Input
Amino acid sequence: MIVAQITDTHIVRPGERLYNRIDTADFLARAVAEINRLEPLPDVTVVTGDLVDTGAPAEYANLRELVAPLRMPVYVIPGNHDDRTALRAAFGGDGYLPEVGFLQFAVEQFPMRLIGLDTTIPGDHRGSLCAERLAWLDRTLAARPQVPTMVLMHHPPFVTGIDFMDRFGLDNAAGFAEVIARHPQVERILAGHLHRAIDRRFAGTVAGTAPSTAHQINLNLNPEGPLRFMFEPAGYQLHLCQDDGGVVTHTAVFGDWPGPYRFRAE
Output
């Protein structure tokens, strides 16, 4: 099984550019085309939050049109730029999102179980996993302890060293770690928010973030460093779920690159 992960798409209204500079719709269209060309085709694509930029219904309508060409099922979770009500209205008809409450779900029909978490706080860029959300996660993991599982969330559960973004991180990473540590079937935690590929061992598993399909956050590990974005190559991740339950993650970038070429001339 192959899981494609895209994140931080930040779609705006048709014809607009993010910060008057970034054509996020064009970037996402290129990512969709790239994923559709992969051989073998991924079994699913997950989108780990900040789907749109302001949470407006028109942005979600634009997003739906952009991801519609994907040739596999698509599952989305909210990020700090998303609005639960508008997101639910746009994607609720797909059948996996709950009709009320937090936008959390479990996808059961694949060899790798997918659990989506809602870490959003309305009106706040920080993330949260309150007691109610953690209890739901604990119950959901306990229901199928033998099935290898991926947990999807927007805010990564670890400090990254990019100080400005860490100020808007997850507020209860310790409580989340306690839950994850009780369930060794969690093979990988997939997150976004950082607009970069970053990995860390966490609570007996591996947690990581994927690059944005559009702009990347400038890599600055100086304390109190300013927040800037870069037009580094946009990307996505492919998570190869192996027969023994393990997961191998590949970070890919998309663009017009020369090749591929044979190593030996014919």
Q: What stands out?
A: The chain is about 20% helix and 25% strand.
